[in-house]
Amino acid sequence: MTSTLPTVEAVPFLDLAAAHAEVAAEVEAGWAEVVGRTAFVGGPQIKAFESEYATWSGIAHCVGVGNGTDAIEMALRALGVGPGDECILPANTFIATAEAVTRSGATPVLVDCLLDTALVDVDAAAAAVTDRTRVVLPVHLYGQTASVEQLRAALPSRVAILEDAAQSQGAQRHGVAAGKLGDIAATSFYPGKNLGAYGDAGAVLTDSDDLAATVALLREHGSPRKYEHTVLGFNSRLDTLQAVVLSAKLRRLDGWNAQRRAAAERYDTLLAGVDGVTGPVVAEGNLPVWHLYVVRVAERDRVLAELHEAKIGAGIHYPTAVHRTEAFAHLGKGSGSFPNAELLADEIISLPMFPNITPAQQERVVSVLAEAVAR
Ligand SMILES: *Cc1c(COP(=O)(O)O)cnc(C)c1O
Q1: Ligand 1 within 6 A of 194 CB?
Q2: Diameter of the chain measured on Cα atoms
Q3: Which residue has its alpha carbon closest to ligand 1 atom 7?
Q4: CA-to-CA distance for 63 and 47, rounded, in angstroms?
């Protein structure tokens, strides 16, 4: 008897090659121009991208910087944060959010997240406010915005809101773009983000002329004019070659985000009949961009190993809550400090998610997942 088994195909976690294929010609032409002029730092490409991104998101200013982590740190500095200040952030985030707070000189104060959406718990954030609190940093995790307006209502007006919008390019809350919900926002164009460069890049977003001007000063050695330095700054400019890539990709981003939404709906449908898998929950008022599609399962490590064995590129975002990392052990927050963040770290799996993922690929992911969970 001949085998009728279908060929088993690997499903990647993401597909940067497909995105590149769509912009390759534009990137090549743009890069040739930069190289032809040997103008490798600065140039019209930076301002062009900044103004395109600002217009696209409906935010007054986009200040391009070297990466998302610097973007958070410079936004904090622009808000006047420094030693002695406290900044409140969720315990379940990429390490960069906490890192930037510590590097600014301030003290990170971690709070728990909600179990269903994995977004910051507004009540916990409000309860953590002290006389020293200067900033709260909601993280728009997985591509869905935190409830910034609820935070605003629950916080004293002297406390600023800095959005970590690294995973939420194009996301909206009640029709307002991520990055425009708080006082200032930081985003990252790390290659795997919804809008990804071909290396490190990031931006600070704000409607405030003053904050934007301060960040523009900070990114350039605190220098308003050549060899004049008014404040201690950074060397963290947006790279010219990256600006070319970002402009080309920004033109496709709405389409790519729509494809991600369609893929998320297909996952929702496929998973509806699967016991033992808790799918993602979208908060009322949110239009997410599905940077990641994250589910929860028991025996996560075994299930993940089975997905990997079947050549399915699943991941964990993130396996260790900030307070459980060695780098932040000094905060003295032991196991049990943030139960929801810790439970999520033990149960979450990020399924393959990228604009051109096919229904067949998603069916394969869900069938392997369902079998593993049932075992
Ligand atoms: C990617 C990311 C960052 C940091 O961005 P980099 O550009 O890698 O420095 C910060 N916060 C979150 C939530 C991220 O996902």
Answers
A1: no
A2: 81
A3: 68
A4: 9
Is residue 173 classed as helix, strand or coil in its secondary structure? strand
Q: Where are the domains of the chain?
A: 16-247, 252-374
CATH number belonging to domain 16-247: 3.40.640.10
Q: Tens of pLDDT along 260-293?
A: 999 999 999 999 989 999 999 999 999 999 999 9
| CB of 190 shorter than 6 A to ligand 1 | yes
C-alpha torsion angle, residues 178, 251, 50, 232 (rounded to 10): 70
Closest CA to 103 of 196, 236, 279, 237: 236
pLDDT in tens, 188-208: 999 999 999 999 999 999 999
pLDDT range class, residue 11, cuts 50, 70, 90: very high
Tokens of 152: 């605003």
- Please tell me the distance between residue 374's alpha carbon and the centre of ligand 1 in angstroms: 35
Q: Which ligand 1 atom sits nearest the alpha carbon of residue 100?
A: 10
What is the edge-to-edge ordering of all strands in the sheet holding 202-206?
61-65, 202-206, 184-188, 160-164, 133-136, 86-90, 107-111
| pTM for the structure as a whole | 0.97
User: Is domain 252-374 annotated with CATH 3.90.1150.10?
Assistant: yes
Q: How many CB atoms lie within 10 A of CB 311?
A: 13
